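Example record

One chain of 468 residues, shown exactly as stored in the release files.
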Amino acid sequence: MAQRPKKGDAHGSMPGGRLAAVAERFFSFMNSYAGHFRVHLKSQASNAAAYLKGLTTKDLKKNMERMSEADSKRTSDPMQHFITDSPWPYREVMDHVACDTSAAIGDEYDAGLIIDESGIVKKGDQSVGVARQWIGNIGKVENGQVGVYGSLVNGSYRSIIDARLYLPKEWTSSKKRLDKAKVPEAERSFKTKETIALEIVKNAIELGLKFGWVGGDAGYGKNLSFAFEIERLNKVFLLDVHKDQLIYLKEPQFQIPEYSGRGRKPTRTKPVIEPIRVDAWAESQPQESWQRAKVRLGTKGPVEYEYLTARIWVYEQEYGIRQWHLVIRRDPETKSDYKYSLSNPPESTPLERLAYMRAQRYWVERSFEDAKQNFGMADYQVRTWPGWHHHMAMVMMAMVFLLMEKIENQEETPLLTGRDVNELLTFYLYKESPTEEEIYRRIATRHKKRQRDIENRSRRRAKSLVST
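Predicted structure tokens for this chain:
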């Protein structure tokens, strides 16, 4: 399970005493990343700190204008340059976050590396990767961007440790769009989401992150290629599959089908027995075969599901035949909401272990909620490839800082949330109330920008009228 926090110096006997040092820990944390933001002998660390402060400030819309307003000595232009144009290495920052997360909650048995995607609805067609595509978190096809993410999860502790933008084929087939969005040459060929997910897993292994298995939803379990590739890396997986996934209840034997006398003569072997769909098998099982298992403690008490498990065989021509675990979960009260998963740990793996692995997906969704609600994951104002990954790297920094605060304060404040950390940082980083002069400065700055925008729109409108 997650490591117990190291006890620091007490800040008095009142509960939550350690919370008072949150600003000190924030700057210490930021300093540990400062080296990544030195570009061409010039440091962008102050802009990085300002951006991170903006992401972690309570009730502040996470755009450049609002974040710069939170710092009276800074305008939005340097931060916009920092995110959009400055060539600081986002991959180094993401890898640093990944290593910090692994040091905090990594475990070669209880921690899981969970792959998931998240979409962000966007208007227009200029932002890198934007297209009409399936946005899973809203459950429909919409215009937007989709990222593939890796999260390290251990019990209720979690943090995003990798983020990579998915480029649809309409983008990878257009050199003009790729150039304009500043997509690196190495990222211009089309990659499926499964390919991107595999890159995330391989990178985690290369970094030496500690995790016991790889998890993912049916988008990554379909056609089984991702599962087979994870097994090739000598890693355990537990991946959801669709209800029409075919399995064999006995190890299939193979032979070349008899020639019917029509068409080409068969030359490849095929299984002699017919496979069965996972949902059909589940429906054929008696009620007494289902077992209950507790997977976590919810706000209303223990959360339990009913499970069926079996040892089955799967076959893919490219990879051959494997014997894996089939895990089926359903709601114990309604006997509905079936989820089907395949997993490859040893045959002796108990049901409770398989149920725990499957249940850790729940916390990944909480990671996305934290990132979007508290740290501006979806509030970026960038259109380029570097800008998108720069923003996600900063959000990941905010996430691992939250994780560290939860561990630091778990004894005194076990229910600490992202919103709590936002409020604490807002108080300790911005103690001084703005003066009347400062309020007028902010108003004047906003009015000046608004007037400039009006003039720019008027000029664009005039040009369009002249061209028509």
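Notes: The chain has a mean pLDDT of 87.
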